[in-house]
Structures are given as structure tokens and as C-alpha cells.
Design a protein that fits this description.
mainly alpha; 66% helix; single chain
Length: 64
């Protein structure tokens, strides 16, 4: 079940990536819900996903 939530989180983040405010809100939700090891995986995925999306860099500050 937890793995399904991780995959669902990635799908949601991809769908809302057109709006940095929505992206940040969904990322905040994910950080509250996911397990610590899933958050580590999510950080790796986020770095790759946002590499060519500078408008989403501000949301990466939530991770640190």
C-alpha cells in the first residue's frame, strides 16, 4: 500500500507541475504522508524531474 502512495505522489506531482504553487502544496502533502525511505527516493526523483524546470526549483527548498 505504501509503495502505491509513492507512485501516486509522483503521478500527482507530474500532473500539477504546470503550476509551481500547486506543485509545492502537493509536495508538502507528500512529505507529511510518505515514509522516510520513500522521501529519500522522492528527492532523487524530484532532482531529475525538475532539472529542466527552473520554475519548480523554489519548491525544492521544502525538502531541505
Amino acid at each position: 500500500m505504501a509503495r502505491a502512495m509513492f507512485e501516486y505522489t509522483k503521478v500527482v506531482l507530474q500532473k500539477v507541475s504546470f503550476n509551481s504553487d500547486l506543485f509545492c502544496k502537493e509536495l508538502e502533502k507528500a512529505l507529511r504522508i510518505l515514509m522516510p525511505h520513500e522521501i529519500k527516493e522522492l528527492v532523487i526523483w524530484l532532482r531529475q524531474f525538475t532539472a529542466n524546470k527552473p520554475e519548480l526549483f523554489v519548491c525544492m527548498l521544502l525538502i531541505k
